[in-house]
Amino acid sequence: MMQQQLIAKTREASERWQRYFNQGDASGCASMYEQKADMIAKPFGHYRGQKEIEIFWRRLIDQGYADIRYLEPKIEVIDDQATVLSSHWAMNKAQGVITRELWVMQADGEMRLREDHFEAKAD
Fold first, then answer.
1. How many domains does the chain have?
2. CA dihedral sign of residues 69, 90, 6, 104
3. Which burial class, exposed, middle or buried, applies to 45 when counting CB atoms under 10 A from its CB (0-12, 13-18, 19+)?
4. Would you say the pTM of this structure is higher than 0.90?
5. Pairing between strand 94-105 and 111-122?
6. Strand pairing report for 111-122 and 33-42
7. DSSP secondary structure of 47-98
8. What is the CATH number of the domain that holds 112?
């Protein structure tokens, strides 16, 4: 796949994740991760697999976190199947930085997160 296509598919997948979050859809958020994905969310902890990741996002949404926005995201192509997204982000009750979202092309033609490393700072 050409680099520009991979970047476009990553941007589309990232925007879909953000829409799920902003709609309060934790299972939708989790569906954007690979089954065995790895998420390091400082200072919250380390989560492995879609089920643990869904529980994390459900808890955050239930606590009233909403309206996430990525601020000046950067997408770097790693190879013909993967990209890394980094960005600052802000939402209603927190802000922070994404240091590494590893998006990988799946057999079904969709990009999903294999790794998600971010840090939150309360407002």
1. 1
2. negative
3. exposed
4. yes
5. antiparallel
6. parallel
7. EEHHHHHHHHHHHHHHTT----EEEEEEEEE-SSSEEEEEEEEE-SSEEEEE
8. 3.10.450.50
Nearest to 14 by CA among 120, 108, 89, 91: 89
Structure token pair of residue 15: 């925007």
Neighbour count for residue 28 (Cβ, 10 Å): 16
Structure-token pair, residue 117: 């490393």
Say if residue 43 is preceded by a cis peptide, omega within 30 of 0. yes
Q: What's the domain range around 93?
A: 3-122
Q: List the beta bridge partners of residue 88.
A: 71, 97
pLDDT digits (tens, 9 = 90+) for 29-85: 999 999 999 999 999 999 999 999 999 999 999 999 999 999 999 999 999 999 999
98: buried, middle or exposed (CB in 10 Å: 19+, 13-18, 0-12)?
Answer: buried
Residue 119 DSSP SS3: strand
Q: Which amino acid is at 100?
A: R
